[in-house]
Amino acid sequence: MEVKQRTLLLCILLCLPIVLQAQRLREKKLIEEQVSAIRNDPEYLSAVGLGESIEEADRQALAALSSQITVCVSSQLDVQTSVEQSADNFSKTDRVNSQIKTYSITNLPNVKRIEISEEPEAQVLRYMRADEVDQLFKDREDKIKNYAKMGMAQEARMQIADALRYYSWSLTLLLSHPRDASIVLDLPDGTSMPAKPWLDSKINEILNGITVKVTDAQEQEDAECPYTLLLNISYRDYPVSNLDYYFHNGQTYIGPISAKDGRGVADFYEYPQDFRFRCEYNFRSQAENLDRELRSVLEHIKPQHFPTATQTVVLDTKMKKLQKEAQKARQTDQAVEMVSTGNVASVVETAQQEEILRVQEAVSAPPTQESLLTECMQQVEQAVRDKKYEAVRSLFTEEGYNMFEQLIAYGNATVIAPPNYKFMQVEDGYLCKSIPMQFKFKNNKTLVEDVTFRFSPENKISSLAFTLNKIAENDILKMQSWDEDSRISLIRFLEDYQTAYALKRLDYIESIFSEDAWIITGTVLKKAELKTEDRISFDSRNVRYTTYTKKEYIDKLRISFAGKEFINLRFEDNDVRKDARGQEIYAIQIKQDYYSNNYGDTGYLTLLVDLRGDLPIIHIRVWQEQKDEEFSAARFLGSLQ
Question: Which of 3, 46, 91, 483 has the smallest count of CB within 10 Å of its CB?
Fold first, then answer.
């Protein structure tokens, strides 16, 4: 019996390779028949790639499929696109080919793959239905229209730098679209216009409307560039809140420099009679970090050039010699007043502006206290100018001086104009607004910031912060239903929040998040990436949410901070709601611009914060690429209640 069993087992083992070989041959024949059917079917576009590895063969197949799509699209275009031919006179097919390369074919759900043979003689088939080619362009057309719509919304709020960015991104994507001439934008007045001429006109209109004036001149004999000009940058007399720009110092363009509330600087080796000023309008670094699709487009499509981005700034003849101190002080006061109140505030209703001025007056410090604190601030200002920081250590608390040292280490810090100090009385002491400063980093990156100093009841500087820009600050000050202390407390929280990231104060950030904080990052997905489990139940859009514990988030920040020379946050366009029961609990949805030496993005930050204790406590933090009503301040606060 055992002999028979062994014989049977031996026969099976001998026959098994033959059976497996036959099975492989049948599978290979089925694949070959399937591939042949697809290749010979005119309803499909297909291409086969060869390589020593599956990955190499797949890349070859995708490249060949792109060429198939190019031919298909070129044959469908009956008229020239609206994009002008380049100097090297590309043919229509050449232009469409460069446009097709900007599309990530790999991620499209309707591009399928068959592995024909294995390594080392790998073959891969990539194919899609010919009538699905239009799906390549539909999503991009939607994004073109969406960026244009975002630009219109920002322009309506007089946030010109943001409007310029979104219009430029919309145009860059449009240049990558083979059917750009047929794309039409719906305008706020109910009319429609072809996208290309409208975006051209709108970007030129904004660039032509930007005015640069020199409002003050400073001289520092021991500085590498001893002459500093203080600039006022405006659009139709409104300060441009967050424009990036370059200036020519006689040898090369310097920048990017980030203006704040219309205030910028330009440093020179010699005092100039005039200089070239160039607005940033491509925002390439932000585009590449924020939007993978835009990054792909910028790798293959040259953005449109706008000569109107560059202008010559001519200095007034009376400023070609440094002015007397009295003249400089008067001009600076006028410049600060224009930036701080007049023009920015005029974009809000008159009643709201009156409320803003009333609150500022209500919290002003008594004159006797102002005199004492002014003397202290003048010493700090001089210490920064002379770089003799230890001389003013006695004016700070221990924590306050630690923050001051972090501020000085933030960049090559200098005072850019005589400050116009304003003091406010708050529950735990006084606030001083502010010293205008610039911070210089590697690769000519410069930031302009106003620094607020906070005083303890003992008149010691206990903390400092970068101020909010006037748009964000006024959005809070105009809330007439809140008392003055609530408004000032919320402004202080947002200033502390953005400053903590700038100065990399990880201990402080860790202290203000509750132990069970809900920390979420949302990313809009393409259809191929969407999975049901990626979506939170109350969300209706194609968005992936990544949730972090407090420890995971702090660990992530620690790694991020270590790899960055500088970080800068700018807040605008805030929607703030207060707990209906009158408690100091707030929901905030605010647009955040994030800048660093190796990363930048723009998105919307939503926070649920409790300001009732000595330290604020954040219970929910959500960051998203686009504004989402699912995470509005009203909805957050409604959920809490």
Answer: 3
Distance CA 378, CA 373 (A): 9
Angle of the 135-156 helix axis to the 160-175 helix axis, nearest 10: 160
pLDDT of residue 465: 92
Q: Where are the beta strands (DSSP E) in 120-174?
A: 122-129
Reference 265, options 234, 232, 310; nearest CA is 232
Residue 267 pairs in a beta bridge with 228
**CB burial of residue 506 (10 Å; 0-12, 13-18, 19+):** middle
pLDDT interval class at 91 (50, 70, 90)? low
CB 67 within 8 A of CB 46: no
Exposure of 296 in the CB half-sphere (CA atoms within 13 A): 16
Positive/negative CA dihedral, 612, 613, 619, 624: positive
Q: What is the CA radius of gyration of the chain?
A: 30
Residues 304/386, Cβ–Cβ less than 8 Å: no
Q: What is the pLDDT of residues 300-348, one digit of tens each?
A: 778 889 999 999 999 875 555 544 443 444 444 444 333 333 344 334 5
Three-class secondary structure of residue 260 per DSSP? strand
Least Cα distance to 58 among 135, 118, 12, 5 occurs for 118
Q: Residue 262: which of 249, 245, 247 has the closest Cα?
A: 245
Strand 461-466 relative to strand 446-455, pairing = antiparallel
- Map 533-552 to HEC letters: HHCCCCCCCCEEEEEECHHH
Residue 594 is inside which H or E element, if any? strand 585-596
The span from the CA of 626 to the CA of 149, in Å, is 12
CA distance 230 to 224: 17
Q: Sign of the CA dihedral 504, 242, 169, 301?
A: negative
Residue spans of alpha helices (H) in 302-410 = 325-337, 343-345, 350-362, 367-386, 398-410
Strand partners, 114: 125
Task: Report the SS3 class of residue 211.
Answer: strand
Alpha-carbon distance of 568 to 98, in angstroms, equals 36
CB count within 10 Å of CB 620 equals 19
- Strands, DSSP E only, in 80-200? 112-117, 122-129, 184-186, 192-194
CB 130 within 8 A of CB 42: yes
Kindly state the percentage of the chain with pLDDT values over 90. 20
Contact 380, 392 (CB under 8 A): yes
Tokens representing residue 209 in the block? 């409307």
Give percent of the chain above pLDDT 70: 76
Separation of alpha carbons 535 and 500, rounded Å: 31
Band (pLDDT 50/70/90 cuts) for residue 162 is: confident
Q: How long, in residues, is the chain? A: 641
- Its pTM stands at 0.71
pLDDT tops 60 at residue 469: yes
Q: How far apart are CA 19 and CA 14, in angstroms?
A: 10
